[in-house]
Write a structure and sequence with these properties.
- The chain has about 160 residues and is mainly alpha-helical.
- The protein has six helices and two strands.
- The protein has a two-stranded antiparallel ribbon.
- Strand 1 and strand 2 form a beta hairpin.
- Helix 1 crosses helix 5 and helix 2 crosses helix 4.
- The longest helix has 25 residues.
- The protein starts with about 20 loop residues before the first helix and ends in a 7-residue tail after the last helix.
Length: about 160
Amino acid sequence: MDAPDSPGPSDSPGPTGPTGSTDTDGMLAEQLLRLTRRLHRIQSRQLEPIDITPAQFRLLRTVASYDAAPRMADLARRLDVVPRAVTTLVDALEASGRVRRAPDPDSRRVVRVEITDEGRATLRSLRSARRAAAEEILAPLTADQREVLGGLLSALVDGMPERRC
């Protein structure tokens, strides 16, 4: 039996890096990356029958979050991507009838993006798919564990620089 004050495997401080963090931080980062990849795979599988990519879903959700139809430049800024990426996503969503381009009433050079009824219906389906993906990934956790995880994730997100999406 170990002495009460001898460190066990989980108590070991481990080697520290240049910032004083332990190997635990590296292991946590790896676990978060693995979880993110797993969530992405599950979500992609859920989105496949709806015929939309995760990037298109993000753009559609962002367009819907505006009170008035946003400009393409607004979307690029909000999504933190280059304008060309927004153009490609809008092209695909417009081809599927989920958004439409509309001229800006104040400037002929500006194009706005409007969500269509089909886009709103798709968002409702996507929200259900997202919930199903979350339920699948969180299935091993009890309600108490989910609450603790939510608090920890909030602490991480709240500690990050502000992002709108």
